[in-house]
Amino acid sequence: MSSSEEKGGIGLNVPDKEASPPPAFDGGPGDQARDHEDFMTRNGLNLRSFQKRDYGSGTVVDSLDRSLRTRHMHMIAIGGSIGAGFFVGSGRALNNGGPGTLLIDFLIIGIMMFNTVYALGELAVMYPVSGGFYTYSTRFIDPSWGFAMGWNYVMQWAVVFPLELTVCAMTVGYWNSEISVAVWISLFFALILIINIFGTLGYAEEEFWSSVLKLVAIIVFMVIAFVLVLGGGPSGSRYDEYYGARLWYDPGAFANGFRGFCSVFVTAAFSFSGTELVGLAAAEARNPLKSLPGAIKQVFWRITLFYILGLFFVGLLIPHDDENLLGANPYADVNASPFVLVGKYANLTGFDSFMNVIILVSVLSIGVSSVYGGSRTLTALAQQGYAPKIFTYIDRSGRPLMSVIFICAFGPLAYVNLHADGPTVFDWLLALSGLAALFTWGSICLAHIRFRKAWAAQGHTLDEIPFRAIGGVYGSYIGLAINILVLVAQLFVAICPVGGGFNDAEGFFKSYLALPVVMAFWVGGFLWKRTGWLRTDQIDVDTGRRELDWDSINEYRAKLAAMPPWRRVLWTLFV
User: Fold this and answer.
1) pLDDT reported for residue 59
2) Which whole-number Å values give the CA distances from 56 to 62, 63, 376, in the listed order?
3) The pLDDT of residue 440
4) 568: buried, middle or exposed (CB in 10 Å: 19+, 13-18, 0-12)?
5) Whole-angstrom distance, CA of residue 570 vs CA of residue 564
6) Which of 153, 260, 420, 450 has the greatest count of CB atoms below 10 A from its CB?
7) CA–CA separation, 392 vs 400, rounded Å?
């Protein structure tokens, strides 16, 4: 492969007119149908909005609502999936591996996510389809594997939904533990249903404002943490003298050796789950070609500023052997959140409650995202004949109504926590979702690798790709390799847990249940469709490509080429 084929970023040469992509997507029948509806119907506020939409000669996914704006896309990318995994799960991860392991593992997963999201952005700009992760696997890897990835993604979000309802209820219990958890589960379940009545716009606005709140809170935390590390805490608190990096020496930067190092990966993966939703949302954006590349670039800031820097401060302020980090449920006990503990130990009145409000908003946000991500993927599966056709139902306001109802039907599983064996069920649900995202991310990287190979083999050049992954195909190889390594590391932990010794069968499957489930889906897809690995000459890279304004693209590339090198790098990475 030539060096020109490996460059990431934005190409600068003008493509051949003959090589320009064929027409594919315009505003679509969804936009046209929406424009002819009244305000109440467009926004899902009357009974007429629930009637089936007539999308004429277009496809089912073309008829989805396309009301996502650039500001929505940017905030979904930078703050959309920051939730319990980051705010609460990081406490258990700190306890298992120590601050050094926490930082290294999250950095490794961050590198993988950076390359994965760029690969997804390249594919999503060219092939704007709802349920994109599944369709890219079907198109560029193997239809049977695509079937497995589609159902794996639906299952992931269907299981996460009741989990998030449970965490919401437990978070409120921080202030009042006497009220039944069922009351709060019902309240938040109803709230998520109300948000979904507004369809894509409801999801977009909720994600935008919750992301703004989360990011402001994390920035506030980091400013306060910086002051505390320097010894600026209130008199009589733990941080009323210079604190520095003492906890990296005593009790130490690493805990539980190699087992501890491997165990933190699954928490890091869970914390990043949902990052890929920005690619899924691209199918419902008003102008994906404009908004998606900018949104993808925001992921860099999220990984470096919020995850890495935020957890670095956590490791400086909370010892990994803190008794409050021990024995807590890794995703549901807000008392074990290191962000809450910092406020407690600093004697900052109200800060712990403030961080719990942020955790509550974050968890609720993930609950809304689970309905959105699961329903859109299920609709795409149904369109391709991989799910019952009833799930292709799109109503007049652009909602995939039956798919939304299907995902919401999993919500009542949250009530099993009222039973004495509820925590056991919670653990099994968590086992189903913990590693599911890794298969999705690995498939995105592999699909990008296969796409690039087929693209070159069929005589196309990189100049015909409007937005290119910054790491090129090498970045996708790195992302795929890290995904495989994390799965191997988690297999090791499933056999040899952090506590020592060896796991029994129950302990193993609680740590590694996602793999046999994915394999079962793959076998099921093969038996149903009887298709296997696609050869390079079988991959279709032309059908369904977006119609592009090459004059504007070339004008932008010329503008980029005229910049000084340092400014060109900054512009390519961040703008």
Assistant:
1) 54
2) 10, 9, 20
3) 92
4) middle
5) 10
6) 153
7) 7
